[in-house]
Amino acid sequence: MNRRLALLVLPLLLLVVAGCTAAADDAPAPRATAAERPSPFRDCAALSTAPTAGAGTPAPATGGETLPELTLTCFTGGAPVTLRDVAGPAVINVWASWCPPCRKELPAFQRLSERAAGRLQVVGVNSRDSRNGARSIGEDFGVRFPILVDQGEALQRALNRNAIPLTLFVDGQGRIRHIDATGALDDARLAELVRQHLGLAVPA
User: Fold this and answer.
1) Is 56 helix (H, G, I), strand (E, B) or coil?
2) CA-CA-CA-CA torsion for 163, 98, 75, 47, nearest 10 degrees?
3) Which DSSP letter does residue 29 get?
4) What phi and psi, each to the nearest 5 degrees, are found at residue 5?
5) Nearest of 180, 188, 198 to residue 89 by alpha carbon
6) In Å, what is the CA distance from 101 to each residue of 2, 8, 106, 136?
7) What pLDDT shows up at residue 174?
8) Burial zone of 137 (CB within 10 Å; 0-12 exposed, 13-18 middle, 19+ buried)
9) Considering only CA atoms, which of 161, 164, 157, 104 is closest in space to residue 129?
10) How far apart are CA 6 and CA 199, in angstroms?
11) How many CB atoms are closer than 10 A to CB 195?
12) What is this structure's pTM?
């Protein structure tokens, strides 16, 4: 009886094993994960090169603190960026995908980067965010300027600021001329702040 039962069960076991192997062999290749999608942002390689076209009226050379001595990673990879090596004039915007005012103002910063190309650098600092969240914002809102990553809020702590969005206006000597924490900035307000603190006329 046991031998007959074994003869009946053995072919079934062989079919089950063969089926699992075939299923594993025929399984579709895994799809690319979100982390493997290309970044929408530009790389950070040119951040240490000063803008060269029409400088406008330079801001006064006295006063203003220098950027904190911090090194941050670039969202797209490559060599880390020392914040003090970012060549001004520059507008540095601290943001996160979970922050509604940040999302509201990011398209205005993208437009500023396009209108002031060659005269001003626009740089983002993504703070306390996930890579997927930041990438999605870049894709959805067409944000293309370079993004640094500051998961530990080192920049905010160095500036004694804890709210975002936070925007720094940095002159050609690397000095912070103004820090804005008033909420979402629009095109007109950004253009006015750039003119007032960096001496550059940019269309709104």
Assistant:
1) coil
2) -40
3) P
4) -65, -40
5) 198
6) 75, 70, 9, 16
7) 93
8) buried
9) 164
10) 90
11) 15
12) 0.78
